[in-house]
Write a structure and sequence with these properties.
The mean pLDDT is about 90. It contains 12 helices and 9 strands. An 8-stranded mixed barrel has the order 1-2-4-5-6-7-8-9, surrounded by 5 helices. The radius of gyration is 20 Å and the shape is globular. The protein has helices at about 15-35, 75-80, 85-100, 115-120, 125-135, 150, 155-170, 185-190, 200-205, 210-225, 235-245, 260-270, and strands at about 40-50, 55-65, 70, 110-115, 140-145, 170-175, 195, 230, 250. It binds ligand C2E and calcium ion (3 copies). One calcium ion (CA) binds near residues 58, 113 and 175. This is Bifunctional diguanylate cyclase/phosphodiesterase.
Length: about 280
């Protein structure tokens, strides 16, 4: 590599160059996946804690990258956001989630993650409207999960979009609650239908008294505000029992069910109760 600045040009260090090339390759593969139907959705059941029945499912992106294998969403959503591809990928996810959810027994709902970048791109409400229309899914059975990243951009426009979605009849959940800086403030600004308590709090339930105190405070506050509480990442029976005792309505986690294919979910839903 040459010295930077002097001659008005600069070579990247080799490792930097390699990373750039990897990112480009990833972008190319993401575009191809979009064009050729390379994405799938997995669905993780959402459980009503009181009777342990499935009341909905969260749609989670899955990508089998050619020559590489399964790439977790955390590893490609960042690039998809930087390149703007998240708009199209997210639109696909909304359409596909609605299409599948329309085949589930009523009133089971589906939750779809919406990235902050996707949220800010124009056309989200139109996309949701079209997906509901094409699938025939009632709007009340679709929930959009947004994170604090959406609300950090605290503009009139953000609130207007949320309100438009709400007017369509779609539900709005605040994802990863408690991991940001001012989650509480956002609850005051917008009437969410649900808060999803981040799995980092659930993980330490029963071990760390502070985690218990935080979860119970969030559940109590949700109740007072008339917002449904969902606890994520429940892996142990004891965690479920503590959450139930604290009045948490809904859970997700490996203890009850892992994310599964749409087919596996339909089989599960068709199985007689108790099996
Ligand atoms: P998230 O929205 O917080 O989703 C929950 C993640 O926790 C999922 O990981 C899920 O498989 C995992 N999980 C569920 N139960 C348990 C448990 O009991 N224990 C543990 N350790 N993990 C559990 P996944 O599918 O790898 O997704 C990771 C993240 O990628 C999601 O976090 C979400 O932020 C993002 N993501 C996934 N699908 C989409 C999508 O369609 N659009 C957007 N924008 N983001 C998505
Ligand atoms: Ca989520
Ligand atoms: Ca989450
Ligand atoms: Ca997350």
């Amino acid at each position: 590599a040459k010295e930077a600045g002097r001659g008005g040009y600069c070579f990247f260090a080799p490792e930097m160059n390699q990373r750039l090339q990897e990112r480009r390759a990833l972008e190319v593969d993401l575009r191809n996946a979009l064009a050729s139907g390379g994405f799938r959705l997995a669905f993780q059941p959402q459980i009503n804690l009181e009777d342990e029945r499935i009341i909905g499912a969260e749609a989670l992106l899955r990508w089998e990258r050619p020559g590489v294998g399964n790439v977790p969403p955390d590893q490609f959503i960042g690039i998809a956001e930087e390149t703007g591809l998240i708009g199209q990928i997210g639109a696909w996810a909304i359409h596909e989630a609605c299409r599948q959810a329309a085949t589930w027994p009523e009133p089971m709902g589906v939750a779809v993650n919406v990235s902050p970048v996707q949220f800010r791109q124009p056309g989200l409400c139109e996309c949701v409207t079209a997906a509901l229309e094409h699938s025939g899914l009632p709007a009340s059975r679709l929930e959009l999960e947004i994170t604090e990243g959406v609300l950090l951009n605290d503009t009139e426009e953000t609130l207007a979009t949320l309100e438009r979605l709400r007017r369509l009849g779609v539900k709005i959940a605040m994802d990863d609650f408690g991991t940001g800086y001012s989650s509480l403030g956002y609850l005051q600004k917008f009437p969410f239908d649900k808060v999803k308590i981040d799995r980092s709090f659930v993980r330490n339930l029963g071990q760390d008294p502070n985690a218990g105190a935080i979860v119970s405070a969030v559940v109590g506050m949700s109740r007072a505000l008339g917002v449904r509480a969902n606890a994520e990442g429940v892996e142990l029976r004891e965690q479920a029992a503590l959450l139930l005792a604290q009045g948490c309505e809904e859970v997700q986690g490996y203890f009850f069910a892992r994310p599964m294919s749409g087919e596996a979910l339909r089989e599960l839903l068709a199985a007689p109760v108790g099996q």
